[in-house]
Design brief:
Length: 170
């Protein structure tokens, strides 16, 4: 599947609660993963970011430098739900749909998320650290929330994004 364009603010699909997925959709899963993989610095992508109002996302933090804890590799979930969250910490986040800014966002330190994988099996994921943060970020997209909605103060917690310079591959 070819990658797709990522929609950015102020696209209305980003501010609306996504509808249930209706079950696994292999084409949507492939579009999410393919688009995430070709997007520099991207570790997750939700269906609304592709302009699709469905409750689905993909995630893979394994190659990100902030992923110091063990992680689950590639995750694709349909109709995910947050079952448990514990702790809290404020840290900087970026978002493909808010390309010009980063923001300091409070997130839980550990989470348990349940959803359906592309093969139709139920999957329960217990995550900590950066992976837990990324999961919460993608779940927010399904609720119509962006990082800008999670800041304590737009004046002190939102920053102009630095230009990303990808490292050459060897």
């Amino acid at each position: 599947m070819p990658e797709r364009d990522v929609v950015t603010v102020p696209h209305p699909v980003l501010k609306a609660r996504a509808v249930p997925s209706g079950g696994p959709d292999p084409a949507l899963a492939a579009d999410l993963v393919d688009t995430m993989v070709v997007s520099p610095g991207c570790v997750g992508l939700a269906a609304p970011q592709l302009g699709v109002s469905r409750r689905a996302f993909c995630l893979d933090v394994s190659s990100h430098p902030k992923a110091k804890d063990a992680n689950h590799g590639l995750i694709v979930l349909f109709d995910p739900e947050l079952l448990l969250s514990e702790g809290g910490e404020v840290a900087r986040e970026g978002c493909m749909s808010v390309p010009d800014f980063t923001a300091d966002v409070r997130r839980a330190l550990s989470v348990v998320v349940r959803g359906t994988d592309p093969d139709g099996a139920e999957r329960v994921i217990e995550a900590e650290g950066f992976e837990a943060r990324a999961l919460q970020h993608e779940l927010d997209h399904l609720e119509g929330l962006l990082i800008l909605d999670r800041v304590a103060s737009a004046r002190t917690d939102v920053f102009r994004r630095k230009v990303y310079q990808p490292k050459p591959r060897s």
